[in-house]
């Protein structure tokens, strides 16, 4: 008897420590909640990036739209504006680094597939500084392929014999003898692709069929098995080539418990089972069933007592929308079983349809997309669409924004055809998703990390670039003027003798711009020490693994034409750029009308002629009947002689970029090249009695290629700048009716589209005379409703205008 008890205890120790090698003491289950709350206390953000395709010809542009979300609220993240992009080759050498600006959770730009690239495979990574605090799959990384026509004229299709791997995984993680076990069977080849719809069976040592099962499109199936330990069992599957695949089941445990999940309308039943020889040793033990989604956690305690089966009902109201990580802990607060379950309640996705109102003319295709969800245009939204020939080989992404939001961060491994699980809500899709989660076993959350290594927050949310300036002077008193840059207006900082520092936040410099500073009261060059945050490109120091990607992005182009890739690609000019037509007078009139809705009074746009004339503001104001002069104290006096006398005399209130100036000395010798427009409200309509002498509002323009007086301005180059937002240009192809274009050509990439109420989106692109196209649609509407669709459109059936 003692020998048997010793044997059981030894096996039980192995069972307990199979996932976590340390003990966390004898605390009750509140310990679990406390540790989880500590781990999940800080918000998470994560990103999905929609690339316009996955295989590029050298000379093309990679178009992308990045979506950054709060991981738990599933709404656009407004906490971060800085998104880092890194491109690496197959040896992990960094080829490009880009800082991308995010607005309202969305960023779009392009990467030039330029001379840096040659034929081969590459990786592009996207992450924020805040993501670096967590060892979680919140970043985005994607493989892509480049074909260099100069070096690779032909790419032949190669065939490779599939080598299949069979895995047998028990639901919850343990296959225990003499009780009913639900098991998943996964059959994948060396690329991670499953055998589609194959039949299989489990046989005993005599070849007798114990149970049968059917694999789905992803090579996953499930069945029930009540095994005996020591008995040899085999999984037998017939592969597509007619060969027999076999796998011996060798993981049957003599002692332990298992778990299964059964849906019951909106609720679920969590079933724990054990065999008789385990029961007599654990019948008085208390187990904790914990359910979490990465942010919140609920728990309940259960005990076998004298029964070998526990059926614990979990109300649907206790389940989280989307993924639920269900973990069973023993009395030592050690996780012993885990299962992922997907709750479809409150999942926010929307399908789209293509309206039959499509129109095709000689040079233009116009399509209308209709969302099945009513769109509230007052809420954030963005949709990106890649338009490609229907038989394209250049778009090989398994996931989309919906699977990225709801599924992939919680799963450890690669998910084949992840978008499928969000392509509808049919019973079959739900069944297949549950099989996937059963087969995945343990989640991406590591309990050893949760219990022992809560996140250390070393990296902040970033909102542009910040500066700290220290004036190097014994007498720092005075006003300091920071010049506008392309994406920021000027600012004024007033210091006294007790303070020689100031800060400026939320700067968005672009490449080549510098931080420029003048001493406002004397308009002289200040001596200052300026520090920038961030000042360098942050590396992501965890081991980034490819995001839900296998090696489908292989070079698979072969042509029967005598012309190679180079001859079938684009014309001499690599991209098609539209001729620029500037309608200056119309644009100016339209802008004045737009500004007129915001302000009282006269609006004067400063023309290029004035900006280039070196005229100063005080002289320019005289054209509008203001009197201006410099006082002996070095101030600038501005008077409106037509204003009625008041306590403030006839001096209007003066604003510079909406900052009220206490005096106008900073505007002395202020050049008109620095000014965008001026609002002259001689009635003071915005400020009432304070503006009895009127208002003068001056708005500066970005500093571009301006020649500055170096004697008056200190310049500090930004060590880190944002990538200039570039327009995507579709390659200008030699021919459209070629195998090359059908396989790798681009029809259109539109990164920032919006639905109109109640749910209409108009899509317009160049007519390549392609009879059938595919729309790869990703994005969100109403701030928290996701669209992830692939639509095939037969243009030959549409009306020709």
Question: Main attributes?
Answer:
Immunoglobulin-like, 37% strand, 11% helix, 801 residues, 5-stranded mixed beta sheet, 11 helices, mainly beta, MG2 domain-containing protein
Distance between the termini: 90 Å
Tally of DSSP helical segments: 11
> Which class of the domain at 2-40 and 162-343 in CATH terms?
Mainly Beta
Kindly identify the CATH topology of the domain at 2-40 and 162-343. Immunoglobulin-like
Residue-averaged pLDDT: 85
Which structural category do the helix and sheet elements fall into?
A: mainly beta
Helix content: 10-25%
Quaternary structure classification: single chain
Question: Could you give a short account of the major beta sheet?
Answer: 5 strands, mixed
Overview in brief:
This protein has 801 residues and is mostly beta strands.
Describe this structure as you would to a colleague.
Among the domains are: 2-40 and 162-343, Macroglobulin (MG2) domain (Immunoglobulin-like); 45-155 and 544-572, Macroglobulin (MG2) domain (Immunoglobulin-like, Sandwich), CATH 2.60.40; 465-533. It is 11% helix and 37% strand. The protein contains eleven helices and 49 strands. The radius of gyration is 33 Å and the shape is elongated. It comes from Winogradskyella pelagia.
């Amino acid at each position: 008897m003692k020998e048997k008890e010793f044997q059981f205890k030894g096996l039980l120790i192995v069972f307990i420590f199979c996932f976590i090698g340390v003990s966390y003491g004898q605390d009750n289950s509140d310990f679990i909640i406390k540790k989880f709350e500590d781990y999940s206390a800080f918000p998470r953000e994560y990103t999905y990036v929609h690339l316009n395709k996955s295989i590029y010809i050298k000379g093309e542009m990679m178009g992308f739209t990045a979506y950054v979300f709060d991981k738990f609220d599933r709404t656009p993240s407004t906490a971060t504006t800085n998104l880092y992009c890194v491109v690496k080759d197959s040896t992990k050498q960094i080829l490009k680094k880009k800082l991308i600006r995010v607005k309202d959770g969305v960023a779009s730009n392009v990467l030039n597939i330029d001379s840096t690239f040659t034929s081969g495979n590459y990786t592009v990574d996207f992450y924020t500084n805040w993501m670096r605090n967590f060892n979680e799959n919140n970043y985005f990384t994607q493989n892509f392929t480049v074909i260099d026509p100069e070096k690779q004229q032909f790419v032949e299709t190669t065939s490779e014999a599939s080598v299949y791997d069979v895995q047998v995984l028990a639901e919850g993680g343990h296959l225990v003898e003499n009780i009913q076990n639900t098991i998943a069977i996964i059959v994948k080849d060396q690329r991670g692709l499953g055998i589609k719809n194959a039949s299989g069976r489990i046989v005993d040592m005599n070849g007798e069929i114990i149970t049968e099962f059917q694999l789905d499109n992803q090579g996953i199936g499930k069945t029930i098995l009540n095994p005996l330990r020591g008995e040899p069992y085999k999984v037998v599957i017939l592969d597509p080539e007619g060969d027999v695949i076999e796998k011996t089941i060798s993981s049957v445990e003599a002692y332990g418990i298992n778990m299964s999940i059964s849906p019951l309308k909106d609720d679920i039943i969590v079933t724990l089972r054990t065999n008789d020889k385990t029961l007599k040793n654990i019948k008085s033990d208390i187990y904790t069933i914990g359910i979490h989604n990465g942010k919140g956690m609920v728990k309940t305690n259960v005990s076998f007592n004298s029964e070998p089966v526990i059926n614990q009902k979990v109300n649907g109201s206790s389940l989280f929308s989307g993924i639920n990580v269900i973990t069973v802990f023993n009395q030592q607060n050690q996780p012993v079983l885990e299962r992922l379950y997907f709750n479809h309640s409150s999942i926010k996705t929307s399908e789209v349809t293509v309206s039959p109102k499509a129109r095709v003319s000689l040079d233009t295709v116009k399509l209308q997309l209709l969302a099945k969800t009513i769109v509230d245009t007052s809420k954030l939204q963005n949709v990106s669409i890649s338009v490609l020939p229907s038989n394209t080989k250049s778009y090989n992404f398994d996931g989309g924004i919906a699977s990225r939001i709801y599924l992939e961060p919680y799963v450890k491994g690669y998910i084949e055809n992840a978008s499928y699980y969000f392509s509808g809500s049919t019973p079959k899709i739900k069944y297949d998703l549950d099989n996937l989660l059963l087969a995945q076993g343990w989640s991406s959350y590591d309990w050893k990390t949760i219990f022992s290594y809560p996140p250390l927050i070393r990296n902040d949310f970033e909102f542009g670039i910040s500066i700290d300036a220290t004036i190097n002077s014994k007498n720092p008193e005075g006003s300091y003027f920071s010049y506008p840059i392309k994406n920021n207006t000027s600012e004024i900082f007033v210091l006294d003798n007790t303070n020689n520092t100031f800060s400026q936040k939320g700067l968005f410099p672009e490449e080549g711009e510098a931080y420029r500073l003048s001493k406002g009261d004397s308009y002289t060059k200040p001596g200052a020490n300026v520090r920038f945050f961030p000042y360098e490109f942050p590396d992501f120091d965890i081991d980034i693994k490819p995001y839900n990607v296998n090696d489908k992005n292989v070079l698979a182009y072969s042509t029967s034409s005598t012309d190679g890739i180079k001859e079938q690609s684009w014309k001499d000019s690599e991209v098609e750029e539209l001729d620029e037509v500037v309608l200056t007078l119309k644009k100016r009139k339209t802008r004045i009308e737009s500004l007129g809705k915001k302000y009282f009074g006269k609006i004067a746009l400063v023309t290029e002629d004035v900006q280039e004339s070196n005229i100063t503001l005080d002289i320019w104001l005289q054209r509008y009947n203001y009197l201006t002069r410099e006082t002996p104290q070095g101030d600038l006096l501005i008077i409106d002689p037509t204003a009625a006398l008041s306590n403030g005399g006839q001096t209007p209130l003066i604003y510079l970029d909406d900052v009220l100036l206490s005096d106008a000395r900073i505007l002395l010798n202020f050049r008109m090249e620095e000014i965008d427009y001026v609002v002259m409200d001689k009635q003071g309509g915005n400020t009432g009695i304070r503006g009895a002498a009127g208002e003068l509002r001056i708005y500066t323009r970005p500093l571009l290629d301006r020649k500055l007086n170096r004697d008056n301005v200190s310049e500090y180059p930004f060590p880190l700048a944002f990538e200039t937002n570039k327009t995507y240009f579709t390659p200008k192809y030699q021919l459209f009716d070629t195998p090359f274009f059908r396989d790798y050509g681009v029809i259109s990439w539109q990164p920032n589209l919006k639905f109109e109420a109640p749910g209409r989106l108009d899509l317009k692109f160049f007519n390549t005379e392609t009879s059938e196209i595919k729309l790869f649609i990703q994005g969100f509407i109403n701030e928290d409703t996701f669209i992830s669709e692939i639509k095939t459109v037969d243009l030959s059936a549409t009306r020709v205008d």
